[in-house]
Amino acid sequence: MRRWRRQLIVVEGKRTGLPAPGPPPSLFVGNTPALSHAYYRTLYAHVGEPVSVFYVHATPFVVVNDSGAVRTVLSGSGGVFIKPRYFGYRSAAVRAAVDADNALCSATAEDGSPVGGGGPATRRVLLHLLDANLPLVCKALEALLASFPLQPPAASDVPATVVSAAVDAQPRVTMAVVALNLRLLFEVGTGLPGSNNPTAAAAAARIGVAGAEFARRMVNPARVITAPLAGLSYAAAVVGLVRLGRRLVSAVDDLPADHWVGAWVGAAAPVAKLGKVVGLLMASSQTVPTSVLWLLHLLDIHPAARARIAAEAASVLGGVAVQEPLSADKAAAAVAAAAAAKGPRWWHPDGVAALERLPYTEAVVKETLRLYPPFPLIARVATTDTVLGGVAIPARTPVYVLPWLLHRNAAHYPNPHTFDPDRWLPAVGGARVAGGAPSEWVYTPFGRGPRACAGAAVALTELKVAALAACVDWRYGVGWGEGKAPGVYPALGVVPAGIQVVRTH
Asked: Which residues contact 185 (CB under 8 A, 6 or more apart)?
């Protein structure tokens, strides 16, 4: 009788011949029920293993937790591990484009630095783009933060809470960041939130639907059959994003010759260019909104960090923290002034270079990305039979790097669940690698290796600006739809589900 699944076996070390580490799978369904209902808790139970194996129905779900195994997978190892063909890669043209891109990435893998997109020359062009557009980034994010509803002061005998005026903050933030990045990356729209921008609104909604359903299907592919309505919404969102991608490809073709996106996309074939453009929009518009909201949550519960950012801004940039609450009229005037001016009150003529002189602000951003990494998982597939962490990996087996697991592993970070920005500050006598971790390969908020996120510098710049605006110009209160903040284990996709934000100053 044929086995119902491909059982992976340990082939090295004391456990040779035994099943790979991981929970025992149930017949036919594997570990799918546990992953669907308690995803991170189920995975975290085996975080101490270099490689652990779960089963999504009959398919192995291989998770790497060891820095050496992570490097092997994300570096590509000369083509042994490549980007998988996700749902919908049935077109021969799409498959050819993906295969060509995989071959190129395998051939150009170098040191695994977390900056993709064509080498030092392209990165210099990206920094130039950020410098030129930093005023827009500042205006857009300040206007976003100022748009949250103002909470009236609580009576002295009533505890301060987020009031009913608060609404789910995630759609508002996603819409604003999509509008900003459409302008920044593709020169489409104004880049400012609140303006009449149906393109940004539609794109934000489609990105939310497609991203959420994609994550669910990774854990439970049977949703294709068991959740037909979600499948229809997913298909509609994907079709809408492809149509938008075609428009953005035309916009890229019209960009100036020295624009970073044009240089990064390069002279690719039409299908490959479409894939790069849609991927860039998805990545930039999924990562920053969730990270901004987690950042606001952490600053809300750690006022000392908020005060240190404000003090650092005052010292380095000349910013002055807001002391008095702003009325609705004053807040509206402040937003209008920010939109009309070159930049916020803490604006510095050195631009992006000035942001590099804010080590504590950067440390808070990096610690936010460690605790709540924006990419829920990074997928690769083995092209040939190989061994990973002592486990035999057959060809065509999917292998996953989960940043949240790496970042919460006590073997990599002391007190891994504790918010500690100081772990990123230079250690006495020298620089500190990856927040004190033993290897840079276990800090992967934007991936590592030749397929690291090309726009990581864009995300980091936007998050630093958001941190400054939140600590210098405004004050916030954060609440949650179910009345309490999430615990150690976040929702699928590390999304801040149900987060509510109000301005308190």
From this structure: 261, 280, 281, 284, 455, 458
